[in-house]
């Protein structure tokens, strides 16, 4: 799938890496530059997607299998691509997405142990071939710090509660993806201040504009 004028950017990383904060800062910066920006998140972003999100993150659903989890993420993604992302790109807007299909590869593939190649095929089927123009992966210094950042205010959801060993597998997955697709994916290490980190995030996408 191709679009004519829009730009699609996704922010990824382990839990607690600050994706949402820097996505909002990026949106503000681009609007200052005169860009029309649409912000979405995964899973969620649509009426159906938000219902799926609640199922996925509910700690009571601990009997959920890895494949069920995968298909629910893909279902939410299919809905938001068709309902929000694709129409916005076709109108020439910039779409910023808090997580996208790279998270599915890393969490359900590297984390859960499902076949990575099969997940990649499912991702492209779900999006009808749509891929981000640029993906920025933000990393904290340690997995322990990442988990602390993610859970310090509201506690852990079902995915965050998987623990350190699971999160390390996820992080390794993101690093592997960055090696596989250096043209699309940029790595940004979390800096001592938000402004320092954001500078690196903006530098990672600036060439698109």
Task: From the structure above, extract its key features.
209 residues, globular, 8 helices, alpha/beta, five-stranded parallel β-sheet
In short:
The protein has helices at residues 19-32, 47-57, 66-90, 101-111, 116-126, 143-151, 164-180, 194-205, and strands spanning 7-13, 37-41, 94-98, 134-139, 185-189.
Describe, in plain words, how this protein is organized in 3D.
By secondary structure, the chain is of the alpha/beta class. Helices cover 53% and strands 13% of the residues. The protein contains eight helices and five strands; from the N terminus they run βαβααβααβααβα. A five-stranded parallel beta sheet has the order 2-3-1-4-5, sandwiched between helices. The chain is globular and about 45 Å long.
**Total beta strand runs:** 5
**Alpha-carbon distance between the termini?**
21 Å
How much of the sequence lies in strands comes to 5-15%
Going across the biggest sheet, name each strand in turn: 2-3-1-4-5
> What is the global morphology?
globular
* Average pLDDT: 89
Radius of gyration: 16 Å
Unreliable stretches (pLDDT < 50, length at least 5) are: 147-153
The largest sheet, given as strand count, sense and whether it forms a barrel, is: 5 strands, parallel
What string, H for helix and E for strand, traces the elements in order? EHEHHEHHEHHEH
How many alpha or pi helices?
8
Residue share in helices?
A: 40-55%
User: What is the structural class?
Assistant: alpha/beta
